Amino acid sequence: MIAGLIARVRSLWHGITRGHAIDAEMRAEFEHHMELHAADLVKSGVPAEEARRRARAEFGGMYNYKEAGREARGLRWFDAFRISWLDIKLGIRMTRRYPGLTLIGGLAMGVAIALGAAVLTVIALMENPRIPLDEGDKIVGIQVWSIMSNNAERRIAHDLGLWKSELHTVQDVGAFRNVMRAVGAGDGRAEPGRGAEISAAGFRVARVRPLLGRYLLDDDERAGAPPVVVLGYEIWSRRFGADSSLVGKAVKIGGVGHMVVGVMPPGFAFPVNHNLWLPLQLDPLAIKPRQGPVLYAFGRVAPGFTLAQATAEVAAIGERTAARLPETHQRLRPRLLPFAQSWFELDSPETVLVFRAAQVAVTLLLVIICVNIATLVYARTATRQAEIAVRSALGASRGRIVAQLVGEALALAGVGAAVGLTLLAVLAARMDAILLQTGAQSVVPFWLKTGVSTATVAYVIALAVLASLIIGIVPALRVTGRRVQASLQRLAGGHASVRMGKVWTSLIVVEVAFTVAILPTAVFFASESLKAMMTGPGFRAEQYLSAELAVNRESTEGMPGAGDTAYQARSTLLRDEVIRRLRSEGGVRAVTWSAELPGSEQSVQIELDGAPAHLETRTGEGTRWSRWAENARRVRLASVEAGFFDAFDVAPLVGRTFTAADAGPHANFALVNRTFADSLLGGGNPIGRRLRMLGIGQQGGAMRGPWQEIVGVAPNVPAHVDYERPQAVWYSPTRRVQPARLAIHVPGTDPAGFAPRLRAITTDVDASLFLRDVQPLSEALWATHLPLRLIAAALAAVATSVLVLSAASLYALMSVIVTQRRREIGIRIALGADRRRVLAAIFSRAALQVGGGVALGIMTAGVVLRFTGGEMRGFNALLVLPAVALFMVAVGVLAALGPARRGLAIQPSVVLKEE
Amino acid sequence: MADLADLLPGTLDVLILKAVSLGKLHGYGVLRRIEQISGGALQIQQGALYPALYRLEHQGFLTSEWGTSDNNRKAKYYRLTASGRRRLGEEVASWDRLAHAIALALAATPKEAS
Hints:
The complex is a heterodimer of chains A (915) and B (114).
Chain A: H1 2-17, H2 19-43, H3 48-59, H4 62-72, H5 76-80, H6 85-97, H7 99-127, E1 139-146, E2 151-153, H8 157-166, E3 170-184, E4 190-198, H9 201-206, E5 212-213, E6 228-231, H10 233-239, E7 250-253, E8 256-263, E9 276-279, E10 296-301, H11 307-324, H12 326-329, E11 332-338, H13 339-344, H14 349-382, H15 385-393, H16 398-438, H17 454-479, H18 483-492, H19 502-535, E12 544-551, H20 562-583, E13 590-594, E14 602-608, E15 613-620, E16 623-630, E17 633-640, H21 644-647, E18 654-655, E19 669-673, H22 674-680, E20 690-696, E21 702-704, E22 708-714, E23 729-733, E24 740-745, H23 755-765, E25 769-776, H24 777-784, H25 786-820, H26 822-830, H27 835-868, H28 871-904, H29 908-914
Parallel strand pairs in A: 4-9, 6-8, 17-23, 19-22
Antiparallel strand pairs in A: 1-2, 1-10, 1-11, 3-4, 3-7, 3-10, 5-8, 6-9, 7-8, 12-24, 12-25, 13-24, 14-17, 14-20, 15-16, 18-22, 19-23, 20-21, 20-22
Helix pairs in contact in A: 2-3, 6-16, 7-14, 7-16, 7-17, 7-25, 14-17, 14-19, 14-25, 15-18, 16-17, 19-25, 19-27, 19-28, 20-23, 25-28, 26-29, 27-28
Chain B: E1 2-3, H1 11-21, E2 25-26, H2 27-37, E3 42-43, H3 49-58, E4 62-68, E5 74-80, H4 82-106, H5 110-113
Parallel strand pairs in B: 1-3
Antiparallel strand pairs in B: 2-5, 4-5
Helix pairs in contact in B: 1-2, 1-4
């Protein structure tokens, strides 16, 4: 039985894959048969010509036997549904014949396909990244997971020493840390390089030969070894003019001379997206557990071992360490992951759930849009019922007709795929600029490439095929069902009709509901984006130049303790000098700095005096976790220079702004913004109230910062922050921030024009200083809105597609009803009924559908809002939902208008004559 | 002379299996062998043979390969597979039982029927 099954599958496979060859073989076999038969006849005395004729006649119809032969090979079903090139050609002709449907369907499908392919590609790239290096799948990251904080513990210098000496299943174990280093060339100008202080083992793991010279060696890691650097191709060609004699010469890296020992080839950016490599001079065994710099460990699974074996060995070492060092390692679990996964930390159940939800959502969106288009296609077939019935009567099987209609759908989906690919290509072309603007460029690793990849094209094709199946098969099966016979009979009477059944009419209810449910969200995002554009930041941002000023951290300064303090002191000194010189520049009215761009501050938890917060601790399954509950408030913490508000010409609403004395080590003063005062202090007098920061210690204990006294209330700066409710902000004056975000007020001129002067001053003060993101502050603030603008654009595109489709579906439905009831309308009018009343009765069905859809949509939107909550709830409920509902009714009326006019124009005499 | 169309369904299949069991044959050879072993009593509609051959091949009872025929032309030769041989055995046994039953039925006398 199994042998029989295998034989059938094999034969079927041959039939499908070698379709034309099989036909040729059959023909050759038949010809051979007839030749032998003719030869036998000649032997029996029949003349040759006559023998050939008789042989052919006695054999019978070759075509029929070929068909029977294909059927015998189990290919009948395949043949029935095989879409031929002719079907596609017919489909292309149909797209030209119905330009409205092609335009609406193609655009809507294009939007859905582009969105779907983009999301699916990104998820696939994140979940199954392929490291484009020799045996990239063998490169692993070693992570220490803290079950206390549910996060990776990165101070792993001590553990690194253990792994290096004890691991057998992983070779070339090493680590790196990210460093920003100013790279100086002959012109004296310093530029930041994305550097990695990396173990020499990293280059053995990557297995990429240097373009020039050598890569780092173990000897370079020794304490006291001469400083060396390996340059990336891009930095070598751009900053050093691709000087091939550079190897062996010294260049300034972070103000210190380093000998260039090698240049890596183009595209090499291991471990993440680095273009500068320095030796990681670190003695792991000299560093105590859970101390030392933040490190990322890597290695390569040794030949002959599997990832699972290596994982087990790492876990076993972890257990031994935990037993030996319970104080620091009891709640730490080292684990091994494929390198790309260890970088993104994507294996948490929540992330996986989000990915799956996103995949389902984009597929669902495409399905909804395709079901919409299927309605339109079905309505189109109303006009082709006669053609289908005739083809059926002439012997075309149901499968053939379905295949033809699917072929047509494929042509339509092809238009959608082309639109989708164009949209993706446009987005991909802009992606580098977007990454640059949002600052994401520095975190995108080398194994993730922007652009339309083969995988993306494959997704587009797969989604287009799915779309064509939905928009082709369902209507095709409906129109080729048992009604074909009835249609044929009706043809004799001169008219054909398609019924729009309950399923189809309820579909319109669903799509109207969907539009009503999704439009408010789209309108919300679009309006917030507009609002951010209109409101502006609340000060003259276009007059300020913004830049991030960082100070090179030398490796001796990287260690906690004395080195760290020395670095902080040096950074403060250098930054103050830059600011002093800037302030003495002509044309500069003010200079200030803060830790982050205004509006992009980090969020922290605080408690207010008189309302103590409570730390909630839970234990279970050997883990313990804590969180602040009750009176803990989440606010944004802005660490700013004392003159911050004065530099922006922002006057306090109440109290005062900071003075230089407020930034002293023992002064504990705070300013809050208007939202803070209104929402957290209940609008009462905030002056003199106190707040303090809350934290959670390593062992899960409560940590509270010193009390800070509120001395003033500032307006919200910037006035509008993304789509969120304006956030409560706590301003804390500080002197030590690294790197610092400078804001230089240069009124009366384009601030970008001041950039060269800023660079010159910075280089002049110290070669270890470097600048990033030098741009007018207005542009930097605008870039923070970019993700919002992208979301708004995507949602608006989807909402518009669905809206247009709903209107088109309503139009199609009304048209079909009018065509279908033409005779009835004619007779009723002939009998004296009022035209408008006749039509009102017919169109009441449409009104019911639109009404039902709107009601369902409002309910759905209500449920969605209940879950999303927050700012959107008030926004929608009051304004947008009723507006969208009214809009939808208007669309319904407009869609019904054309068919209604056609209905009113029906002449009873003409209709009755047709009968 | 009987046309195979008048015979019981499945008869053609068993005759083809039998013909091929005697040695590998091309399509025309199968036809001639059946005529020969049936003493010319059974004749097959020429082209109708092929769908049956393909069906048996699809079911795994026959296997085929291209070779050169006596007239030096490329021809497709069919051979019996192991499962084809088993199938032929089953079919022959089934025919024997049927023929025996029919023979018994036709030999019945009025005495036996009462």
